[in-house]
Hints:
The protein is an alpha/beta fold and 176 residues long. The chain is built from seven helices and six strands; from the N terminus they run αββαβααβαβαβα.
Amino acid sequence: MSYREELCKAMSWLGEQPNCWAIGYNTKYSRAGGTLQGFPGERIIEMPLAEALMTGVAIGLSLDGRIPLLWFERCDFLTLAMDQIVNHLSKLKLLSSGIHSPAVLIRCVVGNKDKPLFTGPTHCQNFSRAFLELVDFPVIQLQWESSIMKEYEKAYRRALNGTSTMLVEFKDYSIQ
Length: 176
């Protein structure tokens, strides 16, 4: 299977998990570039372009017992939700003495730079290494299509146990 087909397969599998909700911008109508086609529409929350807000909503959904799949169409926009990711999602368990353990699956994409329609230098940055230093949960780069399903399954299991995961996808790998 191609990189994109593996992404679609993983998103369909997450959609089969009744407590998993997709949240972000371009999720309800464009279905995250078509990768959420197999995800139930009633569990997709379309958000405005307000990264801090949608991250806060995802954290709230997690605290309510759901497992949010938080979609960032561009990895670059993680910086707009830095406070929520670093100081809330990553630290709330410590700050609450273990009472609260929010777990969010953060799905972000490093934009295309090698294929047609180059998205520009501010839409193809990879902040994975920086986040490895800033958060206490795994940051996984999905370099190979063969690892996509396995990594999303592991991330989901971690979320069931109260641990978030950031999964970094690469647009250049998914453009056919």
